[in-house]
Amino acid sequence: MNPSVIRTLFRVVAFGEALSWVLLLAAMFCKWVLDAEPFGLEEGGVPVAGMIHGAGFFLLYVIMSVVCFFVFRWNIKTGLIALLAAIPPFASIWFELKAEREGLLTRRDAVDAAPRA
């Protein structure tokens, strides 16, 4: 697996997971606060938004976190934090930014093998 492709996929999925939270929270707001059915969607669109978030991006994020655990050789603590970041709203963005900042989305052996200037 190409690490740069995995890195890009992880970042896209992390952003999508957070965006799907926005969709789900907006649908829940419409259902329970506004008591409205926007766009004619039943129950404020919660069933649709819930499927997009849960069966779509949440599962993709978990899968990508496991793939990254092996590809980037994360330690157990980092892997668990990545998985736990799927639960609170928008935590996937926080983890993705942290991983990028700390170099967790690059292969250590590729960095070690790179020629020094």
UniProtKB/TrEMBL annotation:
Record bears the keyword Transcription regulation: no
Matches recorded under Pfam families: DUF3817 (PF12823)
Primary localization: membrane
Entry membrane topology: Multi-pass membrane protein
Location of this chain's protein in the cell: Cell membrane
GO CC field: plasma membrane
Keywords assigned: Cell membrane, Membrane, Transmembrane, Transmembrane helix
Top-level taxon of origin: Bacteria
PANTHER family, per database record: MEMBRANE PROTEIN (PTHR40077:SF1), MEMBRANE PROTEIN-RELATED (PTHR40077)
Stored NCBIfam families: integ_memb_HG (TIGR03954)
UniProt protein name: DUF3817 domain-containing protein
Organism of provenance: Aeromicrobium yanjiei
